[in-house]
Amino acid sequence: MSFAVFAVRRVAEMAATLFVASFVVFGAMYLAPGSPASFLLAGRSASPEAIAAINDRYHLDDPFLVRYLQWLQDVLHGDFGRSITYRTDVSRLLADRLPTTLLLIAMALVVVVVAGLFLGRLSAVRGGATDSAVLVGTTFAVGTPSFVAAVMLQGLFAVNLGWFPSSGAGDGFADKVWHLTLPAIALALYLIGMLARVTRSAMLDALDSEHVTVARSRGVPERQVIRRHVFRNSLGTVLTTGGLIVSTLLVCTILVETAFSIGGIGQLLELSTTTKDFPTVQAISLIIVALFMVVNLLVDLALPLVDPRVTLGTRGAAV
User: Fold this and answer.
1) 306 is a domain residue
2) How far apart, in whole angstroms, are the C-alpha atoms of residue 191 and residue 117?
3) Is residue 129 part of a domain?
4) Gap between the terminal Cα atoms of the chain
5) What gap in Å lies between CA 283 and CA 253, rounded to an integer?
6) For the residues of 7-60, what is the DSSP string, one character each?
7) Sign of the CA dihedral 201, 202, 206, 209?
8) Overall number of domains in the chain
9) Residue 115 to residues 119, 186, 247, 268, 286: CA-CA distances in angstroms?
């Protein structure tokens, strides 16, 4: 199978999966108890005419499939509906909050990749006491939930030392980076431990491979062996964890944004779920699913390029 055919097939599969996911996202909210009308009324009694007006405005009396198809058509045109809680277009809410969340995820991802790859490589190559220290550190990292890490970092670096702000997202790029440093570290801590362990395991397997033994027997310098034959051949295994890393970042950002009062889409999703703001919850859920699928698509497309031993259409299968 050529790379172009494989790419087209994966894009088509992603589109079909996203269509199914949109149906699930739209329908799941209506399985929850309560209704948007009851939230809008805030427990107050209302006349049948007022309830009918609310149902008519939000099309709550239309059949389910009619509501879904109309919603899907609007989404394809960039219209996610109107927020019940904020009484404004959901698209405007997302435009205001999504950049902050994406910046937070990007910062956390950089921290995860740099620290995780460095620690995993250091542990595999050095061994001994260094390996033991990295294993202890990554065990602590993996065992620390993002919300707990957020509270610990706030208490130490924001409250006690005063080095970083304890809440908010800041104004302007530089100020945002400063405000989001602690949240990014809290978000990345667990994944640093996970990626370091995956990298270490992959490199140890590569170190025991036959081609590494042959390269050493030919007098290839150890640093070159590690770079070309060990680390490079480990990237395929490391890359397959990319989807898991990004999905974890997307989920955990809800907790971290709430802890630091950042005001991104993670915190918006938490508030909208509490108030049963259906259009907002559906839009954010669909965006998260779409981002996860795009990342997995990019991983699938990049894997054969990084590791030629991998057959197109598979992950981790050697040719």
Assistant:
1) no
2) 11
3) yes
4) 13
5) 16
6) HHHHHHHHHHHHHHHHHHHHHHGGGSSS-HHHHHHTT----HHHHHHHHHHTTT
7) positive
8) 1
9) 6, 13, 19, 29, 30
In a domain, 186, yes or no: yes
Asked if residue 199 is part of any domain, the answer here is yes
CA pair distance 297, 314, nearest whole angstrom: 12
pLDDT band at 6 (very low <50, low <70, confident <90, very high): confident
What's the pTM?
0.80
CATH number of the domain that residue 242 is part of? 1.10.3720.10
Q: For residue range 236-262, list pLDDT tens digits in order.
A: 777 778 777 887 888 888 888 888 888
Residues of the domain holding 154: 97-276
Gap between the Cα atoms of 227 and 125, Å rounded: 11
Q: Could you tell me the two tokens for 187?
A: 């978000």
Between residues 140 and 30, the one the model is more confident about = 140
In the chain, % of residues over pLDDT 90:
10
